[in-house]
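Revision sheet: structure tokens.
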Amino acid sequence: QEMAEYTRNWAIGHGQSLFPEGGFESSTITCISNQQSWDVNQINDELLARGFRMDRGYGKLRGKAFRIAHMGNIMLDDIIEYLQHFDEVLNV
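Predicted:
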């Protein structure tokens, strides 16, 4: 839950919004509505070059929403590191 809240706060702090209606958020993955029209393909390419991957959305939502997982063998430090790289890519 801590990783979910950290990720949600990161997204909202970057001017994005959450895709699900309030109260229906997942504890295992955060789906972000791409309100800032970030180029998720470019972000993904930059993250891949750094050894990270992102989910760029799927179907009609590809590019309009993207997801950040925080489940499985992932710790809060991993999320923090990933989002730091994400921030660096956004500022490139």
